[in-house]
Amino acid sequence: MKVHNIIAGSRRSAASYYEVKSPYDRQVIGDAPKTSASEINEAINTTSLSQFPLWKRAELLEKLADEILENKEALASILTAEIGKPVKAAIHEVEATALRFRYAASEARLLLHGEFLEGDGSPDKAGKHGIIERVPYGKVVAIIPFNYPMATTAAKIGPALAAGNAVIVKASSSAALSTLKLMEFVAKHFDGSVSAVNAHGDGAKALLISHNDVDLITFTGSTKAGIDIAQKAAGKKLILEMGGKGLAIVLEDADLELAAKEIVKGAIGFSGQRCDAIQKVVAHPKIYEELVAYIRIEMGKYKAGDPADPLTSVGPLISNKAVEHVDRLVKQALGKGAKLLMGGEHEGNIYYPTLLKDITEEMEIAHEEVFGPVITTQTFTSEENLLDIAKASNYGLDSAVFTKDLRRGLSLAKKLPDGSVTINYAPSHGIGYFPFGGHEKSGLGVEGIRRSILEMTKEKLIVF
Fold it and tell me: C or N terminus of the chain, fewer CB within 10 Å?
């Protein structure tokens, strides 16, 4: 399969391409474009705001959702081949992609109707009237990560297009086939309002961020990359979802079987390559040993291997570099006294689900984002100690609290540093029905279908 850039709605061959290989068996599966700075400049300059009225934009998004579902298996197969996403998870991502476009259409109809104001409530506006409209922000650059290349694209451009913006999508070089193939469907419906590129080289990537005609940048990716974007964005509006260090807190009254099931689901999904993944479990010492035993049993239910096998739950990490990063953190923890209960090995890019016990805050793995199928466990001595542990990483995206005492869970949730806290479930951003955003090193701004539409529009007042 060969994909191309999309410039103002039209597929365009690039000057050069590179081979895309499967992270599982390293077989060549396609060719992706190396987009130059000049091609990116053209994409930004020629992509224009939608000329369709709101009802038409919403209708197009719904038709797009239908077409995606009609091609569900084909699109899912690209995810499985390119990023090693297991079959069931790939199907789920395509379904979520369609649903995000559909929700964007529905929410736009509800939010973008304008507001009428009577001026009689103020002596200086008596006899006057006001209309507040929500107008497009302008040209939106959406920077997409490798781990959810279709669903994240929909989460960013669905609201942007619903609001009438122009969109320039930057695909991840590790998932260019997935994002650019999806954007072929989008371009058929929105024509000159969308471009999609696979920026190659520092100059091309920097231009997407610094170009004077770009009004808003929405990004999902690492904290390091997000900080770099913030420094180079020259006053543009930014929505940044960055790294995380998902924490699961298990109190002494928790349902331990439920906690273990949710923790493993939240940690192992897509091999832990998710910003909202649970990576660190901190438990009350009274139930610690029993909880760890339940987690070990639950982890044993997840099969690692070929992502094309319908029975596989844990596929490969995206690259050799990712494997080396995970393995280094695990080995360093073991060298400092952590106990290995499961895993700790890899075969090619498959890193087997790994469970570590007796982690201490002196270990690097206690603070660094792992981005792999690894669960670390440790105890806390008091609520003060627990909060110190929660704040130590300086991340603040997602955490979870497990307790049967809802009042206590709510009280603790208010004290945690994260943008989202989930009680008795694994954290999940889902389709973006609830708003979400990171604190500290985990981000800037808030996303979610409804919230993104508001963030990607500006209020305009007309007085008469």
Answer: C
Catalytic residue from among 82, 95, 262, 275: 275
Quick one: DSSP state of residue 336?
T
Asked if CATH classification 3.40.309.10 holds for the domain at 246-431, the reply, yes or no, is yes
Which string of b and e fits 269-301 if b means at least 16 CB within 10 Å? bbbbbbbbbbbbbbbbeebbeebbebbbebbee
pTM of the model: 0.96
The 10s digit of each residue's pLDDT in 159-209 is 999 999 999 999 999 999 999 999 999 999 998 999 999 998 889 999 999
| Distance of alpha carbon 133 from alpha carbon 451, whole angstroms | 16
Say which of 107, 241, 262, 447 is annotated catalytic: 241
Check if 184 is active-site: no
Catalytic (active site) residue 107: no
Classify residue 266 as exposed, middle or buried by CB count within 10 Å of its CB (0-12, 13-18, 19+). buried
CA torsion angle for 192, 196, 200, 206 (degrees, to 10)? 70
Q: What is the CATH number of domain 5-242+442-463?
A: 3.40.605.10
Write out pLDDT tens, residues 367-417. Answer: 999 999 999 999 999 999 999 999 999 999 999 999 999 999 999 999 999
